Amino acid sequence: MLSHPHQLYEYHVWANDRLLAHLKQLPEEVFHAEVTSVFPSVSQTFGHIYLYEQLYKSVLAEVPNEDIYPKIPGWTKEVQGISLDQMRKLFDDVAEQFRDLLRCTTDPEKAMSIWHPHYGRIDTFFSEILRHVVNHGTYHRGHVTAMLRQQGYAGVPTDYMFYLLERQGCHQ
Q: Are 125 and 84 in contact (CB under 8 A)?
């Protein structure tokens, strides 16, 4: 059985995978279509999620900010104008890197102090930062669902309860 923080991360990966698989069933142009929303397109929303996956993976690995910040432009450029399949590959890769980090973390409840560029020092725990990653993804997957509806397409359920039901072998 997975520890709770690890299970939450697996839910996050499952929800991203489920939404990316749903997008694969829709016309290609849906991924890049411009909409009026928080982000100008579904692809840019996923690009944002990816950027923060990379950033918070680095934070959890205790990489110093001065080593993280110079990588942000590269992560941003990495997702610009790419196809859905290419985005899926980036998400698969970062998920595996995250899993490696989680496997190597002996204490998911360890205390951490991180420095936020706008808010200063935050005293927190590894598990809380991981919860933030999951919550951040959930928030933006909701945006993607709204963008799909704007374009005349249904979303796909990615609620945590559906993840638990699927894990137990229940079908929706």
A: no
Q: What is the pLDDT of residues 59-86, one digit of tens each?
A: 999 999 999 999 999 999 999 999 999 9
**Identity of the amino acid at 4:** H
Cα dihedral across residues 11, 25, 36, 45: positive or negative: positive
List the one residue out of 5, 13, 8 whose CA is nearest residue 127: 5
110-131 b/e (C-beta count within 10 Å ≥ 16 → b) = eeeeeeeeeeeeeeeebbebbb
CB contact at 8 A, 24 and 77:
no
Q: pLDDT digit string (tens) for 141-158?
A: 999 999 999 999 999 999
Q: How many residues does the chain have?
A: 172
pLDDT digit string (tens) for 9-22? 999 999 999 999 99
Confidence (pTM): 0.93
Residue linked to tokens 């002996």: 106
Residues 109, 126: contact at Cβ < 8 Å?
A: yes
Secondary structure string (H, E, C) spanning 70-97: HHHHHHHHHCCCCCHHHHHHHHHHHHHH
Angle between helices 42-60 and 84-104 (to 10 degrees): 20
pLDDT, averaged across the chain = 94
